Amino acid sequence: MIKQVQYLEFFDSLLNGDKEACKRICLTLLENGESPKSIYLDLFQKSLYRIGKLWEDGKINIADEHVATTIIDHLITMISDKVRKEEDVDNSVIVTCVDKEFHQIGAKMVANFFEINGWQTFYLGANTPARELVRYIEEKQPDYVGLSINFHLNGLRLLETIDNIRKKFPEQKIIIGGQGITGIRAEIDKNYPDVVVCESLEQLEEFISKSR
Hints:
By secondary structure, this protein is an alpha/beta fold. The chain has nine helices and five strands, in the order H-H-H-H-E-H-E-H-E-H-E-H-E-H. It is globular, with a radius of gyration of 17 Å. The chain has two domains: 79 residues, Methionine synthase domain (Methyltransferase, Methionine Synthase (B12-binding Domains), Chain A, domain 1, Orthogonal Bundle), CATH 1.10.1240.10; 119 residues, Cobalamin-binding domain (Rossmann fold). A five-stranded parallel sheet has the order 2-1-3-4-5, with helices on one face. It starts with a helix and ends with a helix. Helix 1 packs across helix 3. Helices cover 57% and strands 11% of the residues.
């Protein structure tokens, strides 16, 4: 379990743009047996939520937020390279943000989590147009497609993306997640009952465990 003092040290370093200090803290935690999920939740996610609130309150500027996001993006890649992967499983997934969704950190953590658990993972990043995603699904034929939205105004685009996928691939299995899901959750439950909703890494971990 990550201690509060470790989180505060990480957050202060992140807010100051000190990438090397953040990297050192993460490496120490990994060496001490901390799981990637714990680092993602108790350091990265917690810090990004707090930084987002500081920006909303006008206490930091957009440059500070961008620097913090870039550092965490780098650290996710570092963890992916450092952590021992589970034995490969016979599952594949495409993970992407929907069109006009530029907040990709959550999707990248999810893609990394699948990869650590042995899935063949194709991570497309931010702002993927639906037509290009459909083309890529046709090429890779994944078991699952994971869609992420952080901004609630992209909820309609998420639903349109699901419809576009299902129009071409009626049986395609789809997973969705991200902070922006909340506003459309009722519609998803009503009209897309077979779509898997993962609102946290704990739920994703449970889903992956059941899919083995």
